[in-house]
Here is the input.
Amino acid sequence: MYLDHLRNNAMASAAATAAPSVSFMDCMEAALYCTEVHSAADAYLIKAEATYMSSAAEDGEGAAKEGFWAKIKKVFQKMWDAIVGLGKKVVSFIKNTVKPKVTKIFKKIAVKWQALGMKGKLEKYKDATPDAAKLKDVKYIDGNAAAAEFKKIIDDLAKHAPRNTETQDDSEIKVQDIVNGLPSASKTDASYMRDASSLKYGDISAMVNDITSGKSVTDILKVVNEAEAICNNVTKYMGTAKETMKKAEKEGSEGLAKGAMNTLRKCRTFLTAASIIGNHAGSCAVGVILSQAKAVNAWFSACNKGKSEEKKADDKK
Here is the structure.
């Protein structure tokens, strides 16, 4: 049977779900597998419907219809299992991989800077002037500005996302459009990129405090949390598909059954989109921390020349 290989994939997918940590690639593989199952459902049901119509003509409506509905329920269950597996992976990825990774990065820098005596070093450079030429090619990400770009996208996704208790926008949303609009840590000419050459002592002092406290990525992490909330809402909403399917079987309504399956497809779209946004926002948060830490180090390095020249001038006196 065509769906047999999907059953084997489902077993493999379930085993992967039990892994202690979930990567973005795991989410994408689960999304792809889910898409395959949902696409296979269409092909399988077209064939099942053709068989049903042929059997009904030969053997009568009753037995043929019972067999057809058994196949519909079988396909729905496979679609359900696939989407549930995807939902678990995406939520786990955002909650247990993305957020801890960001926290680990700024805490690691905080410990390192504490060991290097960063506060004392800052005080020594209070009156230093950096050599701007040494900072002309150094850029860093403004975390608040980048977060504002992400917020536009996550707010739009939240507006469209299915949920149980609120009215939602049911217009179509395309994952590729979301991906195309995501901020990137590698775009040096982006609106959220800043030149380190403009940094003053007060900026550096504030940047050090914000990095070590995690404040530099607070707004971006809010976007990550919103992506997680969307996933939780979507997974709760999936239950409506099961209720619709029960009603469809009771009433013998193929239209309702189709609606239940379409609900699962819609949920798949939003879970995939939320995982992509969560991954990009997490990566950007890491970019904020690392680029700002690099700017701080470059600023100190650019000040060394000025301090050295000041010392020589004092010696000549």
